[in-house]
Amino acid sequence: MAHTLRGLLLAILLVVAGVPASAKDYTVGDSSGWKPGVDYTAWAKGKPFSVGDTLSFQYGAAHSVLEVSEADHSACSASNPLRTHGDQSTTIPLTKPGTRYFICGTAGHCASGMKLAVTVSDGGATSSGPTMRSTNAKPAAGTTAAATEPDSSAAAAASGARLATGLMLGAVGFAALMG
């Protein structure tokens, strides 16, 4: 009986350890993308943003993505961005819990609705990955380029490490089950 229970517990461990945590990539505005005339509050409502997920902004050359403070988001102020992106295809990893705020930096666009706030839950995960990833990020005034350099290799390494750990635990469980 104890041998059967041990085997069952190891089988459960194998299944749980072999399934890596899944991150979701959210395309902001879905097929509409990042442009005026989209209700981004409605778009974000009910979405379970978690650490490890990403936001993908797709937009034309007349737009930008600025990450801003809550106050600047409320006031639609583009004068003090935390980060600035203008490459027309920006992916932002959600690396820690909390609320993140984004606006379009083009005059009048935020006031016409090009603003987004997302609340990120920890989802039981922790990350030491990048704070953002963009192929053409510009440092905000008063910051250094190092604060805004892309770092997709760190995200890939963290994801690969989680997968390797899951596979290793699964193999140990399987070996114990067989032995």
UniProtKB/TrEMBL annotation:
InterPro entries on file: Cupredoxin (IPR008972), Phytocyanin-like (IPR039391), Phytocyanin_dom (IPR003245)
Residue span of region Disordered: 122-148
Biased composition (Polar residues): 124-134
Domain of life, per lineage: Eukaryota
UniProt feature, compositional bias: Low complexity: 135-148
Domain named Phytocyanin: residues: 24-122
Keywords on record: Glycoprotein, Metal-binding, Signal
Record has Glycoprotein as a keyword: yes
Leader peptide range in chain numbering: 1-23
One CC-aspect GO term: plasma membrane
Protein name (database record): Phytocyanin domain-containing protein
Annotated source species: Setaria viridis
